[in-house]
């Protein structure tokens, strides 16, 4: 008996315009088909080739044999009383990630995940404590935008849209899943995709410098740096990848990226304020000095506590003191207001559910049971 090999169908949902054009060329079809199909998927939300009335029946039959349009499945959706919406999205058996939509005056931002968990283990981040399983595919990443836009009944790029901004700040380090993230961001910004302006799509990285050095070859999206400390000694404790790529290397690379863009833009510096860890006056003064030559604005994020963390939220006094020091030094400073905390959707709280290949979660849980200090971050008086 011979076992027939079944070739898996290609998922067209995650194909960038270039890859879609190559795909149609590979099956002997004209390149304009790529744009037609992308519009059906991303503008009209089609998941079935039979909906595509301007595509001939013979091509639709051919596509059904070799391709599919399969978004990841929504397991659960929560709606916060403040309008924040969170989805738990299945990306395989026992593997779930989260995406969050945050409405604000005049805009709506979707926070998108790039990996199932995260390998980097930043001290203040719930995702990091859950461990890591795998990278998301491009279809699973752009699928989060597809799901969100569709849930509001709005995919068409023109007109009054709900999802106006996307930040790659959900679960995972986007530059550790470089090509899938770049393809997804290209679909977000393509006129045949979601048509979101390059000034409204932001990639946030904790500092994977070699990939940041390549990013300018693939995209001109905005850049945010998860900095969280003004010196290497403290950042090594909060963001472990800093031991490999210290602050100077990271900021130099970020500056090269931003000054290489065709228009003038600032880097967003993300700084999570943790009580008596990185929220003191001298930290603010050191940060102001560090960023002196960097075209940037600073976004302060009060730490959001989560299970498996013994770090604490900054006090309001320390938060405003920190802001004022930066402000007086000439920086544009914003404070991220906590949104969606009734549905655990606030920044740093995304956890998902998945099998942790690193067994990191187990180790943190064991420490918590033994009532050991979970996160060995030195506190300053
Ligand atoms: S902050 Fe980002 S890079 Fe760090 S552990 Fe969390 S998801 Fe990973």
How would you describe what is shown here?
The structure is a single chain. By secondary structure, this protein is an alpha/beta fold. It has two domains: 10-68, DNA polymerase, domain 1 (Orthogonal Bundle), CATH 1.10.150.530; 73-369, Alpha-Beta Barrel (TIM Barrel). The chain has a ten-stranded mixed beta sheet with strand order 3-4-5-6-9-10-11-12-13-14. A two-stranded parallel sheet has the order 1-2. The chain has a two-stranded antiparallel ribbon with strand order 7-8. It has helices at 17-26, 32-43, 57-66, 126-129, 138-151, 178-189, 209-215, 232-238, 247-259, 281-290, 316-328, 360-369; strands at 10-11, 67-68, 73-79, 85-90, 96-104, 107-111, 115-117, 132-135, 165-168, 201-205, 222-226, 267-273, 296-302, 333-335. A hairpin with a 5-residue loop joins β3 (73-79) and β4. The chain has twelve helices and 14 strands. α1 (17-26) packs across α2, α5 (138-151) runs parallel beside α6 (178-189) and α7 packs parallel to α9. The mean pLDDT is 91. It binds iron/sulfur cluster. Iron/sulfur cluster binds next to α4.
């Amino acid at each position: 008996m011979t076992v027939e090999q079944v070739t898996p169908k290609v998922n067209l949902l995650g194909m960038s315009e270039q890859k879609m054009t190559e795909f149609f060329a590979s099956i002997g079809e004209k390149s304009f088909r790529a744009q037609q199909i992308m519009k059906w998927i991303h503008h009209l939300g089609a998941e079935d080739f039979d909906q595509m009335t301007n595509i001939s029946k013979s091509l639709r039959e051919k596509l059904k044999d070799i391709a599919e349009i399969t978004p990841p499945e929504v397991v659960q959706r929560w709606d916060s009383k403040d309008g924040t919406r969170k989805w738990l999205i299945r990306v395989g058996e026992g593997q779930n990630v989260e995406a969050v939509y945050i409405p604000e005056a005049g805009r709506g931002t979707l926070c998108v995940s790039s990996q199932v968990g995260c390998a980097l283990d930043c001290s203040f981040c719930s995702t990091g404590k859950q461990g890591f399983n795998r990278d998301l595919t491009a279809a699973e990443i752009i699928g989060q935008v597809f799901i969100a836009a569709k849930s509001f009944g709005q995919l068409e790029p023109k007109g009054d849209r709900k999802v106006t901004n996307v930040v790659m700040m959900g679960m995972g380090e986007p530059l550790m899943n470089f090509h899938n993230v770049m393809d997804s961001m290209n679909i977000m910004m393509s006129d045949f995709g979601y048509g979101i302006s390059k000034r409204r799509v932001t990639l946030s990285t904790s500092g994977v410098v070699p990939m940041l050095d390549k990013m300018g070859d693939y995209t001109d999206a905005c850049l945010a740096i998860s900095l969280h400390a003004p010196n290497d000694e403290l950042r090594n404790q909060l963001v472990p990848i800093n031991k490999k790529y210290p602050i100077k290397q990271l900021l130099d690379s970020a500056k090269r990226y931003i000054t290489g863009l065709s228009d003038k833009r600032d880097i967003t510096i993300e700084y999570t304020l943790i009580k008596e860890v990185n929220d003191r006056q001298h930290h603010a003064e050191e940060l102001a000095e560090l960023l002196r030559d960097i075209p940037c604005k600073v976004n302060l994020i009060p730490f959001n506590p989560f299970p498996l963390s013994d770090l604490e939220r900054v006090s309001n006094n320390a938060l405003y003191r920190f802001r004022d020091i930066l402000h007086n030094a000439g920086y544009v400073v914003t404070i991220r207001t906590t949104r969606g905390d009734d549905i655990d959707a606030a920044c740093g709280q995304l956890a998902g559910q998945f099998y942790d290949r690193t067994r990191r979660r187990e180790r943190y849980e064991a420490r918590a049971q033994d009532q050991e200090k979970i996160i060995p971050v030195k506190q300053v008086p």
